[in-house]
Design goal:
2 copies of one chain form a homodimer.
Chain A: H1 4-10, H2 18-29, H3 37-47, H4 53-65, E1 69-73, E2 79-83, E3 91-96, E4 102-106, E5 118-120, E6 123-135
Chain B binds a DNA duplex (25 and 25 nucleotides) through residues 12, 14-20, 36-38, 50-55, 57-59, 61, 77-79.
Chain lengths: 148, 148
DNA sequence: GTACATGCAAAAGATTTGCACTCTT
DNA sequence: AAGAGTGCAAATCTTTTGCATGTAC
């Protein structure tokens, strides 16, 4: 994904500031690390100390509302962000309930919604997220019995 | 689900206090409303003003860690809770990105994980959540084109 | 030029925590 | 009796907001 995506998605409704470009590029580059707003801010801050945390929050919220990024919640008390690459296979997240590690699970369950739009009861689904919980391979030992 | 579930799940490791019973019963009763911790606190407060908000938080966290309740995030800035009824068909949540309404979607995509445990790459999945986003039937008009 | 965006600092919320006291076991 | 749990209030942490200033279009 390159910056012209922003131009297109903003569609004249939002201004393409250099701050927004930097934030977008940072989230693009670090997308597999699922950075939080604070993380993005800190990465950027080294090179561009003038960009404020509030701008990072505002921009991530904007990109999220436009479907450019996905806002994730792994249950650790802050939101995390990744690029929403519509043309790639949807991937989902496995979260270890013992150590908190996050593992990407590509393609699982994707076929249910990947057709783009999906109507159920007059509802039109444009996107979805799947979170799986359990024990990662390092934590599989000492695990309690499953809840069911 | 009745209170003896608690006795069993606590397994001697946690004490069965009347506060925990009340919180559990409240979340059981209001589970389809996905109450937040504050909501639970307020419902309980009418009858049991002595129970503190911190206890509600602590208990919901405990029940969540034991797999008795699911902690949900609909993106409105607070966590919400529902009973994790392992023996019922898993249900998921549709969240309208226009008005914020939440609609339950029963059974969709459930078969991917419903077999209980599911091993991928040494990972053992014990639970999962699926969030679908889009426009509810009241908001379908005036919707922008889908991101993909 | 003008409306929108930013930076800063303060505010707002949600959730957690320290501590003295209480209660389950 | 002992240790875990509770209530309260304060603390913490994330996210939002008001406002004066800056800037993309």
């Amino acid at each position: 994904m390159n910056t012209s995506v922003l131009q297109e998605k903003f569609n004249g409704k939002y201004k393409l500031t250099w701050q927004r470009e930097i934030i977008f590029r940072t989230i693009s580059k670090y997308t597999d690390q699922h950075p939080s707003a604070e993380d993005v801010y800190e990465i950027i801050h080294r090179q561009h100390p003038v960009i404020g945390l509030a701008t990072v929050y505002r921009t991530l919220e904007l990109l999220s509302s436009l479907g450019i990024v996905q806002k994730l919640d792994f249950g650790d008390g802050r939101h995390r962000y990744e690029i929403n690459d519509c043309h790639a296979l949807h991937h989902h997240h496995f979260i270890c309930i013992s150590c908190g590690k996050v593992v990407e699970m590509k393609g699982i369950c994707a076929n249910t919604f990947n057709a783009g739009r999906n109507d159920v009861d007059g509802i039109s689904v444009t996107d979805y997220q799947l979170y799986a919980y359990g024990y990662c391979k390092d934590c599989e030992k000492n695990q309690p019995p499953p809840p069911c």
